[in-house]
């Protein structure tokens, strides 16, 4: 097997005709990169959604057994790459690392190794994927499994292509330079991405990193730790609101009606404060068959909707901001006014801020939410039958008594109310409180 460096040289020689025979498909590559550039910069994506793309990628990665998957964002004003960038963002991930197939995929357009694998649990969407890094950097660097390469958005002088031509990195940065930013006494994770930021992206990146929501890990099955911090030689220059989030799942599951329930505990520590905030969530996950009339091309291989409802047992974790009520693996910006969180494989608007409310796939999911809620609520009530009355009143707090600003979600609320009347599981006076 070729060494990482030899593998990269082989790619540049055979695919991009650098020092080798002309590739008859080179013109196709030119057209593909032009299309990529047009798509990349026409997308309504601000950095917060871009940072979530990186979380998607980390969740889709593979991890060694016994490893607690983690993702770390570190922003520094040190120009460790020597590019003249005013700030650099480093992303550390303790995954297995890039394989040769991953490298070949990233040197292509539209050849994701995850494409068509929705049923296997991959959550990333087909689209710009990793190449969205070019929204904030002109030169992304990858250090993983012996590979140390960079890409540039400017056309390569040897083949005229940008974005997908790998270049082996010599000299800067040394591993010791990276360790200084990470933690000089710690072993570097397998994969490090280094993104020297474009000058006009430094403030947006800082602002959005400071807004990473503490509940971001709630519906991820792999990532257990996520942290954001800033590292400057003078700590007084740090302006990013640091946060470290961890999750722990109680895997004692109760199975019935094609559903499972479990508890997730989240803890978040902000700005180095030793006092952690904690909240546990009762989780109800139920599967429903996808109806023929709700199928869409982007999800043709998916046969079941998995809907998860999260019921917070304490005050929800937040960072002085409104708490999203709808997740599609990661948070949207939709505030529902419901005392529980809805998660499913929703199709998102291009901005990623909301789900597509007029989409038939999403409507099919929403039509099933009331059934999931009734089953979850019934399960919770049965769990507290022998508990003090105060525990039962806590269950009633999960009822969506307040109206939502979204008509589609109000329809869900009305369906829940109708089902509660039909099931006769709550007092009439409580039902009368539905506004």
UniProtKB/TrEMBL annotation:
Transmembrane segments: none annotated. Residues 88-146 form the Sacsin/Nov domain. InterPro entries: Auxin_embryo_med, HATPase_C_sf, SACS/Nov_dom. It holds the Pfam family SACS. It comes from the Eukaryota. NCBIfam families: P_loop_sacsin. This is DNA binding ATP binding putative isoform 1.
């Amino acid at each position: 097997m070729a060494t990482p460096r030899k593998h990269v040289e082989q790619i540049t020689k055979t695919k991009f005709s650098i020092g080798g025979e002309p590739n008859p498909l080179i013109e196709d590559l030119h057209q593909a990169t032009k299309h990529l550039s047009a798509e990349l910069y026409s997308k309504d994506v601000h950095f917060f959604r871009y940072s979530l793309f990186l979380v998607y990628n980390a969740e889709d990665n593979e991890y060694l057994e016994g490893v607690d998957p983690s993702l770390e964002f570190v922003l520094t004003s040190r120009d460790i790459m020597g590019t003249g960038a005013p700030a650099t963002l480093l992303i550390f991930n303790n995954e297995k690392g890039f394989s040769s197939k991953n490298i070949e995929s990233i040197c292509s357009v539209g050849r994701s190794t995850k494409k068509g694998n929705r049923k296997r649990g991959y959550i990333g969407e087909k689209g710009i994927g990793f190449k969205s890094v070019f929204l904030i950097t002109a030169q992304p660097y990858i250090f993983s499994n012996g590979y140390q390469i960079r890409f540039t958005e400017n056309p390569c002088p040897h083949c005229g292509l940008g974005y997908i031509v790998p270049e082996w990195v010599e000299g800067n940065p040394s591993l010791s330079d990276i360790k200084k930013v990470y933690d000089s006494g710690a072993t570097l994770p397998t994969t490090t991405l280094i993104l020297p930021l474009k000058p006009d992206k430094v403030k947006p990146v800082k602002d959005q990193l400071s807004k990473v929501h503490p509940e971001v890990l709630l519906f991820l099955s792999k990532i257990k730790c996520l942290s954001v911090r800033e590292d400057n030689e003078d700590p007084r220059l740090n302006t990013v609101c640091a946060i470290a989030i961890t999750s722990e799942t109680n895997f004692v599951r109760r199975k019935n009606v094609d559903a499972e329930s479990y508890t997730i505990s989240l803890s978040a520590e902000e700005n180095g404060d030793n006092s952690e905030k904690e909240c546990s969530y009762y989780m109800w996950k139920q599967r429903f068959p996808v109806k023929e009339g709700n199928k869409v091309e982007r999800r043709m291989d998916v046969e079941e909707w998995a809907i998860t409802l999260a019921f917070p047992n304490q005050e929800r974790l937040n960072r002085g901001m409104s708490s999203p009520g709808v997740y599609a693996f990661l948070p949207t910006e939709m505030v529902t006014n419901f005392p529980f969180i809805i998660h499913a494989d929703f199709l998102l608007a291009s901005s990623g801020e909301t789900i597509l409310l007029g989409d038939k796939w999403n409507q099919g999911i929403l039509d099933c939410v009331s059934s999931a809620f009734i089953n979850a609520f019934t399960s919770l009530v049965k769990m507290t039958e022998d508990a003090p009355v105060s525990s039962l009143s806590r269950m009633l707090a999960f009822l969506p008594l307040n109206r939502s600003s979204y008509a589609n979600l109000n329809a869900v609320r009305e369906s829940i109310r109708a089902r509660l009347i039909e099931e006769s599981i709550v007092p009439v006076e409580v039902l009368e409180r539905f506004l």
